[in-house]
Predict the structure.
Amino acid sequence: MNKLLILIVFSSFFCLAQNTTNDDSFKKEISCNLLPSVKTGSALSFYLKEISEFQYESKKNKTQNEFVLFQNSDSIENILNKEYPKIFKRVNDGYDLNSYDGTKIRIENNITESKSYSRYSFKGKYEEYIFIMVEYYEGSEVIITNTKTNKSISTVGKPHFINNELIYSSAFDYGTLDIHIFDLKKKESVLLSFENWLIEDYYNFSIYIRFKVKCLNSEEKRYIEVLKY
């Protein structure tokens, strides 16, 4: 039987806590719970539902909105500097990009062996959006810049456009699977974090996002559907 989780998120951070016990079998059972922790900076409603393998495969379509990859980041950067001088205006060794929330997103090249290491590269574009990969001493992020509005957002991994207003991305780091959903029109976002799950496959159709995930402990496979509404 499918399990339906209705999650209504307000301007706060909350974590759906898991009960603990000394029983090893119970620990193994909850180690791959599909209840995520949730972070959001704005009022946002969505649902997360477990679906069957049959449901997942029935709508599977690998045709995605893929972006154009840049072959030479340095050359593309010079071109963008000239084409969008108000957006990509160099400040020292990087850029101060305007965020959707009114703050600045700082990206820079700081090539050092310390924890302050950072390096950016222009990776690609999709319609009016430019994608910039930023690598850190630990981890990375992707900056999505809208060249029409001069607004940028930060997301956890390679972006996928469900439509012209809704973007999602995912990343896996230290046993945690993060799924980030951003509404460009409403300027709202939500970050779902799952412990001990790894994405094996994914796709979107209409305004639904579906994932095939594998538990790192038991290697069981499950299927989930996310809808932001």
Summary: The chain is about 10% helix and 50% strand. The chain has two domains: 1-64+190-229, 68-158.
